């Protein structure tokens, strides 16, 4: 009997073509109507799921009695109920590494756009405001030579730090669970407590996965510790930052601004944040380039096929489900 793959997002049909003989492939596409309804109709057939950006837990997966593996096209896996997957012995894989540089590019785009007020001044020019030279109230702040604070110097954090240090002559501070002697040597990165990082950095960038420990990592107390000229850049996950506390800090001018790719609720059609001139907002596009999303999909497909073919997938998030079987 052929196994069934349900591809629910982020996979180009051409990637699946070579596997059509071996697998039943159900590709959910907006052309066929509501994706949620298609998902509910297909899920009971699935041996493997591939896609990204969908919350999956008991309710969504209960009828998926055949399900062996979910291959997520994302590095973060906070969308999945890991305890439930483990209880069902369903493998979960992600796509680390291939998005590090692209996500770091986006972090830097937000640093520059926020510091130099690019979207705000772009809108001003296009709206016909540029009838005389800008005045001081429209000046931005420097990026080069400033202090870049990275909370969680993993691979994406390191890619951001490299851009800051090597491209912009910034000093790099970092906090987190472990010291990174290699990066200290390569970039002169300084390991400090989170409080020292917040008090001394011009740009504060949390780059941590969303877990019970990192939820609300940056809240009222942390904003109070930041420099008044400090800028928060969030490309990790929305709930890592207490959004209400962020809004209050911005309103009170306790910090200079924020560059945001992620939010507590996504998608987010409206928010106070969208009305603030000193906030640059983009709609969760950290990894969203053609090249990187293709690389992520290819890596996820590899993981999926390994799982369905009885091998141990390369990027297995929950090896405990295998109990030494592969
Ligand atoms: C990820 O891979 O986790 C990015 O946030 C894109 O979804």
TrEMBL record:
Keywords for the protein's UniProt record, in alphabetical order: NAD, Oxidoreductase
One MF term in the entry's GO annotations: glyoxylate reductase (NADPH) activity
Source organism superkingdom: Bacteria
An annotated GO cellular component: cytosol
UniProt-listed InterPro entries: D-isomer_2-hydroxyacid_DH, D-isomer_2_OHA_DH_cat_dom, D-isomer_DH_CS, D-isomer_DH_NAD-bd, NAD(P)-bd_dom_sf
A Pfam family this chain is assigned to: 2-Hacid_dh_C
Domain D-isomer specific 2-hydroxyacid dehydrogenase catalytic as annotated: residue spans: 7-318
Keyword Coiled coil recorded: no
Record-annotated D-isomer specific 2-hydroxyacid dehydrogenase NAD-binding domain positions: 108-286
UniProt keyword annotation of Metal-binding present: no
Similarity annotation: Belongs to the D-isomer specific 2-hydroxyacid dehydrogenase family.
Protein name: Gluconate 2-dehydrogenase
The species this protein was found in: Azotobacter beijerinckii
Lineage start: Bacteria, Pseudomonadati, Pseudomonadota, Gammaproteobacteria, Pseudomonadales
């Amino acid at each position: 009997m052929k196994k069934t793959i349900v591809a629910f997002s982020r996979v180009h049909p051409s990637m699946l073509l070579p596997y059509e003989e071996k697998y039943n492939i159900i590709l959910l596409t907006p052309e066929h109507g509501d994706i949620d309804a298609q998902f509910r109709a297909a899920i009971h057939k699935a041996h493997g799921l591939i896609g990204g950006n969908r919350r999956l837990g008991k309710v969504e997966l209960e009828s998926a009695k055949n399900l062996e593996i979910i291959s997520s096209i994302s590095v973060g896996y906070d969308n999945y109920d890991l305890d439930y997957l483990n209880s069902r012995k369903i493998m979960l894989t992600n796509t680390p590494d291939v998005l590090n540089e692209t996500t770091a590019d986006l972090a830097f785009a937000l640093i520059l756009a926020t510091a130099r007020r690019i979207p705000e001044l772009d809108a001003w020019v296009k709206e016909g405001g540029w009838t005389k030279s800008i005045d001081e109230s429209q000046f931005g702040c420097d990026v080069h030579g400033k202090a870049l604070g990275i909370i969680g110097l993993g691979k994406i954090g390191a890619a951001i730090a490299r851009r800051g240090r090597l491209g912009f002559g910034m000093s790099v501070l970092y906090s987190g669970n472990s010291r990174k002697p290699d990066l200290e040597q390569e970039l002169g990165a300084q390991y400090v407590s989170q409080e020292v990082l917040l008090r001394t950095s011009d740009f504060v960038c949390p780059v941590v996965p969303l877990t019970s420990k990192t939820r609300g990592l940056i809240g009222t107390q942390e904003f109070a510790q930041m420099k008044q000229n400090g800028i928060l850049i969030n490309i990790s996950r929305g709930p890592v930052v207490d959004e209400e506390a962020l809004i209050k800090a911005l309103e009170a001018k306790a910090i200079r601004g924020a560059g945001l790719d992620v939010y507590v609720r996504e998608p987010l059609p409206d928010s106070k944040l969208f009305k603030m001139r000193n906030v640059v907002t983009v709609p969760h596009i950290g990894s969203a380039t053609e090249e990187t999303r293709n690389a992520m999909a290819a890596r996820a497909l590899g993981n999926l096929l390994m799982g369905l073919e009885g091998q141990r997938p390369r990027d297995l998030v929950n090896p405990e489900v295998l109990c030494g079987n592969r």
